[in-house]
């Protein structure tokens, strides 16, 4: 997830026939039948996980700012980046859980994490659900899809490194563009369409918010704007170092998330509508026994392919759902086809695919 990119890497000419498969109805039935009894979001898990992650993040960033030791700054900054990254990933859960399932959690998350990190939940709500629509996944209408495996080799490092600029871009978006947009309507429209969604597709244009959602957008956007202005003003009160330290930590979290995004899918679709099974196989699970994926794909995101089968399944139930499906469907099944060993293997596969696009 990154704010709408302004860089437009062009897909190279495809070197393969688009991989399409018919739906595996047995797998889809198993996903429905074997997960009965799961699917209820547990408030104690959500609140505890989010509050601890945010608390560790704020403690880490405070130590990194005040410490006079470079080693302590680096260690505290790393801890803070990982903790904030986990806390921020609850934005993904907010787009899928029923609005009545966790009373107060959306507001609490926005006040404690979303607005302070300048990524309020409106930037993902109403956007990510398009990515899950049967006829829009992987097409030009999908805000979260690019055929990265079919692009030029330089597209991959550019895709990751541009995330370093995200914290600064968010300060400009909320601290400069939003206030100016209040008095310049065309700028307001431009900012909303281009810079109000956590998307990677540069062609995506966001529609104006409506109904109750428009009300949530107003207070979240105003809150984020006030905070962004305060951050800018802090330079004149406390100097540039505290803000620079915070931005460096958040840049690291953004790069880590961009790496996760890079391996969340195989990115091999050329824009055609895909079956549910094809979408599943274009997505990625990185199941246990490895522990590293819990760090770089937290809050259930290591089961991203499974999530595409059951988008409303709470993150804390995905490990059990995976165990049931893997045990029932077994080796050589379609389900096993979405399981991958780790980030390095996935990056290597995508990079190798881009090498074939040089001609």
Automatic annotation (TrEMBL):
Residues 77-332 form the Fatty acid desaturase domain. The chain crosses the membrane at residues 56-85, 158-184, 226-256. Pfam families: FA_desaturase. One of its GO terms (biological process) is lipid biosynthetic process. InterPro entries: FA_desaturase_dom, Fatty_acid_desaturase. This is Fatty acid desaturase. Keywords: Membrane, Transmembrane, Transmembrane helix.
């Amino acid at each position: 997830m990154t704010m709408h990119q302004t860089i437009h890497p062009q897909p190279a000419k495809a070197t393969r026939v688009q991989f399409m498969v018919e739906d595996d109805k047995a797998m889809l039935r198993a996903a429905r039948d074997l997960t009965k009894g799961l699917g209820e979001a547990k408030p104690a898990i959500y609140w505890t996980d989010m509050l601890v992650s945010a608390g560790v993040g704020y403690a880490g960033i405070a130590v990194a700012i005040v410490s006079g030791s470079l080693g302590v700054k680096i260690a505290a900054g790393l801890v803070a980046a990982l903790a904030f990254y986990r806390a921020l990933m609850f934005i993904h859960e907010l787009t899928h859980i029923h609005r009545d399932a966790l009373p107060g959690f959306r507001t609490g998350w926005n006040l404690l994490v979303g607005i302070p990190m300048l990524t309020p939940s409106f930037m993902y709500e109403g956007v990510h659900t398009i990515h899950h629509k049967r006829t829009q996944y992987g097409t030009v209408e999908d805000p979260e899809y690019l055929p990265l495996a079919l692009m030029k080799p330089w597209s991959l490092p550019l895709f990751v490194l541009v995330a370093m600029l995200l914290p600064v871009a968010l300060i400009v978006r909320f601290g400069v563009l939003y206030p100016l947009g209040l008095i310049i309507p065309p700028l307001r429209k431009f900012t909303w369409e281009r810079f109000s969604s956590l998307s990677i597709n540069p062609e995506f244009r966001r529609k104006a918010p409506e109904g109750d959602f428009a009300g949530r957008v107003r207070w979240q956007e105003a809150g984020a704007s006030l905070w962004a202005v305060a951050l800018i003003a802090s330079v004149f009160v406390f100097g540039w170092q505290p803000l620079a330290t915070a931005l460096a930590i958040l840049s690291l979290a953004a790069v880590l998330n961009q790496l996760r995004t890079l391996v969340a899918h195989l990115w091999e679709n050329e824009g055609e509508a895909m079956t549910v099974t094809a979408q599943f196989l274009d997505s990625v699970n990185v199941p246990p026994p490895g522990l590293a994926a819990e760090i770089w794909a937290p809050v259930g995101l290591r089961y991203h392919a499974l999530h595409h089968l059951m988008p409303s399944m709470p993150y804390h139930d995905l490990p059990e759902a995976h165990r049931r499906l893997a045990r029932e469907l077994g080796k050589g099944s379609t389900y096993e086809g979405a399981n991958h060993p780790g980030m390095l293997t996935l990056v290597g596969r995508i990079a190798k695919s881009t090498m074939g696009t040089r001609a």
